Amino acid sequence: MTLNEPLFYDRALARIVRFMLALAAIGTVAVWFHGGWRWSAGFLAGSLVSYLSFRGFERVANSLGPASEAKPPRARVAILLGVRYLLLAAAGYAIVRFSTLSLTAALLGLFVSAAAVILEILYELIYART
Q1: What residue numbers bound the domain in which 110 lies?
Q2: Of 16, 20, 43, 49, nearest to 105 (Cα)?
Q3: pLDDT tens, 63-110?
Q4: Residue 19 falls within a domain, yes or no?
Q5: pTM of the predicted structure, to 2 decimals
Q6: Cα–Cα distance, 127 to 15 (Å, whole number)
């Protein structure tokens, strides 16, 4: 399989999403034993934000398209990207200020998408076909 095949990227994205779901489930159960329901709910909330952020980046990357079809960026896209980070900051503030959820667990949950991408890299290194 080569990098030019369109299914290569679709399969990789599907594996990343499965890795994210598995990591979120395993992590939620693991932190339950460490800190109880507050840690578990915090990790799950962080994992959800991580998943939504990953999907947002995927949507932005898909909107760019091939170089021959590239359109000039619109101001609306830039505004939406800025608003997304403001919403993430507001959610973090709400968790810290008003919630009883564990901030540490929520921050750990934010790394779920990064860990899933690393697992995909390892998968490709181990099972790569040339």
Answers
A1: 6-127
A2: 43
A3: 776 654 556 666 777 787 788 788 878 877 776 778 888 888 988 999
A4: yes
A5: 0.77
A6: 13
